[in-house]
Fold this sequence. Notes:
Number of domains: 1
Radius of gyration: 18 Å
Strand order of the largest sheet: 5-4-1-8-9-10-11-12-13
CATH topology: UDP-N-acetylmuramoyl-L-alanine:D-glutamate ligase
Helix content: 25-40%
CATH class: Alpha Beta
Number of helices: 10
Bound molecules: adenosine monophosphate
Structural class: alpha/beta
Order of helices and strands: EEEHEHEEEEHEHHEHHEEEHHH
Amino acid sequence: MKLLSVGTVAFDALETPFGKRDRIVGGSCTYISLSASYFLNDLGLVSVVGDDFPQETINLLENKSINLEGLQIKQGEKTFFWSGKYHNDMNTRDTLDTQLNVLENFDPIIPESFKNPEYVMLGNLVPALQLKVLDRLENTPKLVVLDTMNLWMDVALEDLKKVLKRVDLLTINDEEARQLSGEYSLRKAARIILDMGPKYLIIKKGEHGALLFHGENIFYVPALPLEEVFDPTGAGDTFAGGFIGYLSATDDISFENMKRAVVMGSAMASFCVEKFGPERMENLTQEEINDRIAQFKKLTDFTMNYEFA
Length: 309
Ligand code: AMP
């Protein structure tokens, strides 16, 4: 298997300045897999849902060639539920509710055909479960990427530190990087976090783009200034899915290629925020994605021939 992704498949309740949804499909793994599915077919998902989860979403994921052998459906149990409300700037949000439900007793069983993945995306999930997934693999993947959030820093920091020692790359947002490192300066924060284990770090800054750190190297890509942002939910996961989807499809983990992957992740995230939930990620075309990449290029391209007198 080329890419294994793990995380939540969920129901979300969302409120943004543009509207409200009481119960739509979400989850870190849903966004990651949908986004990565545009780059490869050999992609497996490990997660869990209850019997309340819609069959039509399962069909949708299957139609995207996402292998769902590792998706457990627990009879008589309820799917993980998360509810969040965005502030007016859409860059910050409050978690209103997190109901673990099926996640409480989730044992991430890895199907035989998933046990030797070349690339692994550990999407946002209880750190102890992320560790379990790594323990159950039979090989050492080429690249393991971890995503996490402030909740796990609050309630499971020791487990999170253990996972950090075993992954190659961490993606978190700026607020979380500051919390994890205890440093306000993102540059200093990056140095501290890179000392915790991962060789690479991506700090996502919402509408202000993303930074990639590796040793003394830093690369920055802005977010595309969009006219309308309806719902930022899943943007981080969609970014991660596009990033690792592109890396696994090109099978090149050099820093130069990671820069391209950061642009690809940012392009995919720019679609995600245009509609509520994962809707916009369901039917993208290659032309649309290529066009976004061209817009990123144009946005950041300039020449300068000024000569001081
Ligand atoms: P993002 O906006 O990229 O941070 O991801 C939002 C998605 O993460 C939502 O669809 C939620 O269902 C999911 N989510 C929220 N809280 C958690 C959590 N504690 N663990 C795992 N997934 C979560």
